[in-house]
Write a structure and sequence with these properties.
alpha/beta; Glucose Oxidase, domain 1; eight-stranded mixed β-sheet; four-stranded parallel β-sheet
């Protein structure tokens, strides 16, 4: 890959440097331990040389004879494919033929490739509002562990990760970082083509919530939106994942938002296989994933999330990813960077465009260029694209008649300033994410889609212990007034921290009727967080003694996304004496496989420390170390 002409980089912003240095200092011991393990594993190359003849015979018994000859020789790279393919999930259905395409590409450069293993890939869109959603967050750590199981065969010189959606990319990356000595490239499948406008889908959902649309109309609307192979086209967690893989240097440049089944998409997949061969320890460009993901890459990921109004789920996932690489970040880092990073995109739910329109308007190449020129990204990171650092990601791929896949300079200006804005005239002067704090705990709030007139609310609380309870109150006509909805006991230990999307249409209806409403919860709302101010991921959660459990109906609650204030205006003495009044949570522990995840619920860390359950992690946030409530 030929280095592009880099953007005219400004001096990195002083806050960017200060936050990065604080993270580096905070992480010094754990990062050093991680890198020592990485170097120890790297010294064992070639990995297949550590296996016995019996081990190798088992591993290659079923491969074609030509591949078997290469693998027996132990002189050429062998690429391990970890795939999340299934044919139920639209985003992952295109992966069906990727392994054979990758094998052919590897053979063309004298290497081999094998499917090392598969990971689960559940769809939050299918489980939304269902009991199965309580496994969703935990599935991330299952994916990390299954990735580790796949790579534990120790047969591989590099990894290609096939995954796109919500918990899947973070889980794959966490698993790959456990094998940080292996180069790793993420291979996306791209977004589905554009369906009906997202605002029309949202309008039908609200009409259904009001009883003005029947199920047939709702199903027709949803099917016109989610209509083919590829990721959903709104800017939720799945597409935020793709943004992160670009800005953190784990995709080929410009790979994120190319539609499935196109010649360009196929060419990028094949090139990824060839590029993986070029960056193994057998080459002069050795690029281990544990070195790609360093403090600078993590900060770049946070900046990308803020600049694009990305999914709030990444205030969990980025923390977990970082910790897997020995790097410790917290919500203060997000907040401080949020004060210097402008919002550059308006993609639904923050705007009306979808990711296909975003890509056409300039996409990631333009956003990265703008941020680099403003000194808001570290330009000198290690990436899978090689020499040139992050400047490579200001280019876009195309099909050249002679070379096949090639890269050219990406857009220097937005083709639609209603979708992608320059740093000089952003949609918001600071990022669309707020750290909220007060006597209710610490939380995050996505404000990029919230109108200015709705960003501060002080109103009486209505307390619920499930989204179904709020729905029932709405249907009974009990919510026709200003209020702050408190949805308590929804944290990782209580029930797996499901996304609470049943609330979105209901609260949107009430907002449209002129009522002032907000949401406060220790649960999640994800990348689809919309126009209602929502203080989510409240930590510590109720089950760990979090003060949100002290709120009672009628308490005056203030949610101020301008100042970050999140508090119940209750007399201090009264507040201190209140019990936590734990509800019966026993129903959260069985059916739909939940009984298999008891160990996850019992050991999961706080939201601010990444809600990690698969392995030990030190909780460094003092506010989250309260003793668990007995339930």
């Amino acid at each position: 890959m030929t280095p592009p002409n880099p953007p005219s980089n400004s001096t990195p912003h002083s806050t960017l440097l200060a936050v990065t240095e604080r993270i580096r200092s905070r992480s010094a011991q754990s990062r050093a331990q991680y890198l020592a393990r990485l170097d120890q594993l790297a010294d064992r190359h070639p990995h297949r040389g550590a296996l016995s003849c019996t081990n190798i015979a088992h591993a290659v018994a079923a491969v074609p004879d030509n591949d078997k000859f290469i693998l027996h020789a132990e002189t050429a790279p062998n690429i391990g494919i970890v795939t999340s393919y299934n044919d139920m999930l639209s985003a992952h259905q295109p992966y069906h033929d990727y392994p054979e395409r990758i094998r052919r590409a590897a053979r063309s450069v004298g290497a081999t490739a094998q499917v090392a293993g598969g990971t689960p890939a559940m769809c939050d869109g299918v489980t939304q509002g269902q009991d199965g959603m309580e496994l969703s967050l935990f599935s991330r750590d299952v994916i990390a562990m299954s990735t580790a199981v796949a790579l534990s065969h120790n047969m591989f010189d590099a990894t290609l990760c096939l995954g796109i959606c919500d918990k899947i990319v973070p889980g794959l990356l966490m698993g790959a970082l456990a094998f940080g000595h292996l180069p790793t490239i993420f291979v996306p499948a791209g977004p589905m083509t554009t369906g009906i406008p997202n605002k029309d889908k949202a309008r039908t959902r609200q009409r259904f919530a009001e009883g003005k649309a029947d199920r047939a109309e709702l199903l027709a609307s949803e099917s016109a939106s989610y209509h083919g192979p590829g990721t959903c086209t709104f800017y939720g967690t799945a597409n935020s994942n793709q943004m992160l893989m670009e800005v953190m240097g784990l995709h080929l440049p410009g790979a994120a938002f190319v539609n499935p089944g196109t010649p360009l998409r196929d060419g990028l997949t094949e090139f990824a296989a060839k590029r993986a061969v070029q960056i193994t320890a057998r080459s002069a460009e050795y690029t281990p994933v544990g070195r790609v993901i360093d403090e600078r890459a993590i900060v770049n990921g946070i900046v990308g999330l803020l600049a694009t109004g990305g999914s709030t789920n990444h205030t969990l996932h980025l923390v977990a990813i970082a910790r897997t690489a020995g790097i410790v970040i917290d919500w203060d880092d997000f907040d401080e960077l949020g004060h210097i990073v402008p919002l550059l995109t308006h993609v639904y739910p923050s705007g009306e465009a979808d990711v296909n329109q975003f890509h056409a308007a300039g996409g990631m190449a333009l956003v990265i260029r703008e941020l680099l020129e403003a000194g808001l990204l570290h330009p000198d990171t290690l990436t899978v694209a090689g020499e040139g650092g992050l400047a490579r990601y200001t280019e876009e791929p195309f099909l050249d008649a002679e070379q096949g896949i090639a890269w050219r300079e990406g857009p220097r200006e937005s083709l639609d300033r209603e979708i992608v804005a320059p740093v000089s005239t952003p949609f918001l002067a600071d990022g669309g994410l707020r750290l909220m704090h007060g006597n209710l705990g610490r939380s995050v709030c996505k404000v990029s889609a919230v109108k200015p007139e709705h960003r501060v609310i002080e109103a009486p609380a209505r307390v619920f212990h499930s989204q179904d309870a709020l729905k029932s109150a709405f249907e009974a006509g009990e919510l026709e007034r200003d209020f702050v909805a408190i949805i308590a006991w929804q944290g990782p230990r209580a029930n797996g921290m499901p996304e609470l999307h049943k609330l979105t249409p209901i609260l949107g209806v009430l907002l449209d009727r002129g009522f002032r409403v907000a949401l406060v919860t220790d649960g999640r709302m994800s990348g689809a967080s919309g126009k209602v101010p929502a203080a989510i991921h409240v930590s510590p959660e109720c089950l760990l003694g979090g003060p949100l459990a002290r709120v009672r109906d009628g308490d005056l609650v203030r949610v101020d996304t301008e100042t970050g204030e999140l508090c119940a205006k209750v007399d201090a003495a009264d507040w201190a004496q209140r019990s936590l009044e734990a509800p019966d949570l026993s129903a959260n522990t069985f059916d739909m496989g939940r009984e298999l995840f008891g160990a996850f619920r019992n050991h999961v860390s706080s939201a601010e420390t990444g809600a990690i359950s698969a392995f030990a992690v030190t909780d460094t946030v003092s506010s989250n170390t309260s003793a668990p409530v007995s339930v």
